[in-house]
Each structure stands twice: as structure tokens, then as C-alpha cells.
Amino acid sequence: xxxxxxxxxxxxxxxxxxxxxxxxxxxxxxxxxxxxxxxxxxxxxxxxxxxxxxxxxxxxxxxxxxxxxxxxxxxxxxxxxxxxxxxxxxxxxxxxxxxxxxxxxxxxxxxxxxxxxxxxxxxxxxxxx
Length: 129
Known about the structure:
Blueprint lengths: L8 E5 L3 H15 L2 E5 L2 H11 L3 E5 L7 H10 L8 E5 L4 H9 L4 E4 L4 H12 L3
Parallel strand pairs: 1-2, 1-3, 3-4, 4-5
């Protein structure tokens, strides 16, 4: 029997398939979210327009279009500008986090992260919608 998703739809974007699968599983099991995935920024833009997710979890370092440029494009498009974006980064430099906020990301999380920390950030942002 398929579980019904009642908390919302999340787009997870990361070029690492293992990270996409792990985050998807954690969000579906622990959070009750419907999760769709993309492997780069170009795919993320297409998926965001096609599926209108409630939130986007977006890696910074990706091929084709990185997370910062993807966020800029999402925030610049009428259809996707109001979708909250959480930037995922393995980079512990403050500059990346400041830049992510500057281009419109609602929050960020440093990889590796605990599921509970991610769920708390997601729930906080979705409760504002």
C-alpha cells in the first residue's frame, strides 16, 4: 500500500545519486513528503516548472548549472520565484552561505547533515507558506 503524502512536495537537486536517494528516502520516511529529484541545475529548472514543488533542496557544486546560478534563475522567474530554496553545501566557507542568501535562498545546510536538522528547516519554511 502506497503511503499518502500530506506535507508537501520537495525537489531534491544533487549531482551525486547516492545523496539524492538518501535524502529522498529520509524525507519520505521521516517527513511524509513527496520527493522528486534532479541531477543538475538545468534539470532542476525544468522540474520546478513542471511540478511546482513546495520547496527545493539544492546542492551548490553541480555540473551544467551550479546551485547559486540555479537559485538566481528560479528567483527571477515568475512561476518559481516564491518557492523556498535550501542550499546544500559541503563547503564550509562563509562566503558560499552569504552568497546563497544574497541570491534568494531561504536557508542553507552543510553536508553531511542530520535528517532531524534538515526536517526542522523544511518544516519551518513550509509553515510560513
